[in-house]
Design goal:
Blueprint lengths: L3 H48 L7 E2 L5 H4 L5 E8 L2 E7 L13 E5 L4 E5 L6 E6 L2 E14 H4 L1 E8 L2 E2 L4 E2 L2 H9 L2 E12 L2 E10 L6 E8 L6 E8 L4 H12 L2 E2 L2
Length: 256
């Protein structure tokens, strides 16, 4: 016959096991959905935050900050600031400006007092007195001085021109008027600043065949009769030639 104490102990153990299993089942089945629901809620909240961010060009107001509002990849551009906060718009970060003269060569002429950078494709600078006008120094480039083959020519003139008619040097305004006469159609006549000096930039269709386009930049240096002039003549379809010329002009420095 089974000892009654052993029997009671066995029944007690079984009861504890049944009760413990029930508690475990209740906890697993009742609390798991709560955890999943909280996870789903967090996911929904994160998605809402991401989709509610301010896009490029969108404005924000005080006291909120752009860090809370601007979409990914955008930055704050403040408009006004006050004790209550900052207002502004969300914008794309500015792209770094590329060096548009990277790889160019440098020319320095201490005697003339001139410095500039130029594309390697132009070849070597060729310096000589201008034919018939020894008071003007002419600088051409070995690879861009023949319109018949290269469809591109760049010329630089620096010095003074004597006017026999006026018995004096040509003034800057007279030089500009004479240059205008080389254009069949003058499309623009603008002021320009080169190395802090005010000059003139002309652009249009040239007189001589085959009707190339031209750009002329003239700047008085020192006195009004000492003139720097640079010209580009090119086939109008070759826009890169004019782009390079405009960059070249902006590198010019007068060292005297």
């Amino acid at each position: 016959m089974i000892n009654s104490k052993i029997l009671y102990a066995t029944i007690a153990i079984l009861a504890i096991a049944i009760i413990g299993g029930g508690v475990t089942y209740y906890y697993v089945t009742k609390t798991r959905p709560v955890v999943q629901t909280q996870q789903n809620l967090n996911s929904t909240q994160n998605t809402t935050t991401a989709t509610n961010c301010i896009p490029a060009g969108g404005s924000y107001g005080a006291p909120l900050t752009a860090a809370d509002l601007c979409c990914s990849g955008l930055v704050e551009q403040p408009r006004t600031s006050s004790p209550s906060g900052t207002t502004g718009i969300c914008v794309k970060p500015a792209m770094p400006i590329k060096n548009q003269t990277s790889g160019w060569k440098t020319y320095t002429n201490n005697e003339l007092g001139i410095y500039f950078q130029y594309p390697r494709a132009w070849g070597n600078p060729l310096v000589s007195p201008l034919a018939g006008t020894p008071t003007i120094t002419e600088i051409t480039f070995s690879s861009v001085n023949d319109l018949s083959s290269g469809k591109d020519a760049v010329l630089v003139f620096y010095g003074t021109t004597y006017s026999k008619t006026a018995s004096r040097n040509t003034t800057f305004s007279e030089a500009v008027s004479q240059t205008i006469q080389t254009y069949k159609t003058l499309e623009s006549n603008d002021n320009v600043t080169i190395d802090g000096k005010a000059g003139v930039k002309l652009q249009g269709i040239l007189n001589f065949p085959p009707a190339y386009n031209g750009i002329s930049v003239l700047v008085p240096t020192g006195s009004q009769d000492n003139i720097f002039a640079a010209q580009e003549w090119s086939d109008p379809s070759l826009s890169v030639n004019f782009d390079n010329f405009n960059r070249f002009v902006q590198t010019i420095k007068f060292t005297k």
